[in-house]
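Recap slide: Reverse transcriptase domain-containing protein, sequence and predicted structure.
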Amino acid sequence: MRSLFDKFPFVIAYLDDICIYSKSMEEHTQPFRIVLEVLRKEELYARLEKCAFAVDKVDFLGHTIAADGLQVDASKVRAIEKWATPTNRKEMLSFLGMEGYYRKFIINYAKLVLPIIELAKDNVPWQWTAQHDKAFLVIKAALQQAPVLQLPDFDKPFMITTDRYRRVHQWTTRVAAFK
């Protein structure tokens, strides 16, 4: 599916999910027609009950996308909120996979998750401690309060930061480019 739509800047396609986006309804008509034509030509069909048309907010690939930005899908936040404390390595890795998908929403994620990551190593015997429990609860709480992420306004200055814990280049601010 992705290869069919890669050339179109107004489409995100992943497996059988397609999102067509634009800034206005007027701009939306032509991209919508193009996507429908590609689907028709390739003899691909959409299920009407899975479609949303002319909306300004959509749940897509575990995220809610709206004019004000990108946020974690509320149903995923609820699922993580209800997540039980892992009792074995498999459950822990499952949690890390789900939570890691949303790492971009949690400031200092790499530092917060470090105790659990250490326990995930192959040579470390399973022993869930109070330290792991604290990290687990802190990460879950951080996702409950995840911000709405916005694209930068390229007409204004902005700063890019990273939370690559223990992998910082000399702890200094660096210029990425000048206008």
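The beta strands are 11-14, 17-20, 57-60, 63-66, 69-72.
The radius of gyration is 20 Å.
(End of recap.)
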